[in-house]
What we know:
By secondary structure, the chain is mainly α. It has eight helices and no strands. The chain has helices at 2-15, 18-38, 42-48, 61-81, 88-110, 114-138, 140-145, 147-166. Helix 5 (88-110) runs antiparallel to helix 6. The longest helix has 25 residues, at 114-138. The N and C termini lie far apart (73 Å).
Amino acid sequence: xxxxxxxxxxxxxxxxxxxxxxxxxxxxxxxxxxxxxxxxxxxxxxxxxxxxxxxxxxxxxxxxxxxxxxxxxxxxxxxxxxxxxxxxxxxxxxxxxxxxxxxxxxxxxxxxxxxxxxxxxxxxxxxxxxxxxxxxxxxxxxxxxxxxxxxxxxxxxxxxxxxxxxxx
Length: 168
């Protein structure tokens, strides 16, 4: 009989982790919403920029970021769900990359500070790579979920640099 009780307890503990996922998703999409508020005219600004020929169309950013913010949240949830040791350092770096992500949009679109935005996105990339390494210690899947994010941020860094250089 003790096994039946512990099975129920295990199920209850697993089920109680869904609110954590919902909270992480809410946090990530709140960052997206704040970025959107900081750049209500981002589409017009982006279209007016002197962009390289390889720059994607403006409409692509919304769908890409919608997916990426979801994977950012799920990656953190997987680490918190199956920790292998303390998660404080990994989650601190996850929070740092999210804050740097949040800072980029107003720097680039609202302030037009392409050089500071480039510095921010380079710091974001470093924080993101650190997060991936730390996440890999807890859950390889969590680190792999961040690969598309790191690839997009790397591409966005190159685009940011090209725009900055064309405006100096």
